[in-house]
Amino acid sequence: MIITLSNNKISASINTIGAELIRLEKDNQNYIWTVDETYWNKTSPILFPIVGRLKNDAYTIADKKYELPRHGFARNFEFQILNQTENSVVFVLESNSETLKNYPFEFKLQLEYELDGNELKMKYSVENRSEVTMPFSIGAHPAFAIEDSFSNYSLQFNEAEEFVSYELENEQFSNSFRKINSENGQINLNYSLFEKDALVFKHLKSNELILLNKNKPVLSVQFEGFPYLGIWTKPNAPFLCIEPWCGLADNVNHNGNIFEKEGIQLLGNEFNFQRKIVINLL
Questions:
Q1: Is the pTM above the cut of 0.85?
Q2: What is the C-alpha to C-alpha distance for residues 168 and 250, in angstroms, rounded to an integer?
């Protein structure tokens, strides 16, 4: 089912499967890319309870092995609607017999979308309903439409800093990294940047960036409290994914113990984890 929100500035459409944002419009322009399966079959999946790929698609807890696909399972489940107004909606996914097979923790995952002027606020909440500490990761994966030549676009970060991207090898970190050329916090985009998969920044000072087309602002993404950021596209694809993460893919040398995984979040019993991403259409 598709849920559509609107105010007097913008509108958003979200699929109850995965609570996935599929459209974000202002002045009849859709800022989220339209799916073309030649490139990719998603628009803005939620990444939970892992971000990225596990080594051998598996992890261990107390020497017991569990399997999880890349980016976890939340994006494939039907979310329930907890609350809905004209300009907001709250989706919820709770642990069930299917999730417990591959992730032995009781949880409540909540994703709220709220329109506020030209902004879409995406609020994430994870509640641990287990008796024990729950390891998890969570991340966003919105794909923004590229309407022009890709090389006309750039990213302006709110801090001038050195951009070091940690490289992936078969979707796992390989212990190599490279410096990305920038000037005053601005990275000019071209497809060659993504020949070895996503750009992954682990040590950003910035918590906001602006997507520019010919130096004209298109939209901004605020990601306070997300320690990692992925930027991704595919060769010649008409989209750019801007992905704030609380979690990372495995390292090629990881021992499989999820509690010792780089970037893992550890949530105590009955505790609640909250983060917010704001997309502002400029």
A1: yes
A2: 10
